[in-house]
Design brief:
Layout (H helix, E strand, L loop, with lengths): L26 E5 L6 E5 L1 E8 L2 E6 L9 E6 L5 E8 L2 E7 L9 E6 L4
Antiparallel strand pairs: 1-2, 1-8, 3-4, 4-7, 5-8, 6-7
Length: 115
């Protein structure tokens, strides 16, 4: 079977269909190593180079609270990566090689509920 549609709307026909019992990423981005440029993104308003190996990701649409789940991967193999300073509208990613913070391209993604 094939289903071809141009638009899927809610029952009232006025908005998008809500995901039920499913979760999609609410934010993702691909940043350069310096933390000064976003190469591509979804729900990302800006990026702040917080320091060597640290980037703050600012969301266009905030999460409902600070209890969401940001995760990320990096473009090289470093053994310590974590998210910190998690707020409804932003979070910081940290990349450390065991001795010092290291600049590297980052690929963060966030799951949770939007405000």
């Amino acid at each position: 079977s094939v289903l071809n549609v141009d638009t899927i709307a809610d029952k009232a026909g006025t908005g998008p269909v809500a995901l039920t019992k499913q979760h999609a990423a609410k934010h993702w981005s691909h940043t350069n190593a310096a933390g000064t440029s976003v190469e591509d993104s979804f729900n990302n308003s800006s990026l702040t180079d917080t320091g060597t190996g640290q980037q703050t990701h600012n969301l266009t649409s905030s999460m409902s609270n600070a209890v969401h789940s940001p995760q990320f991967s990096v473009g090289q193999n470093y053994n310590q990566q974590w998210a910190s300073d998690i707020a409804a509208g932003s979070y910081r990613t940290n990349n450390h090689d065991g001795s010092s913070y290291q600049d590297v391209e980052q690929h963060p993604v966030t799951h949770g509920d939007l405000a």
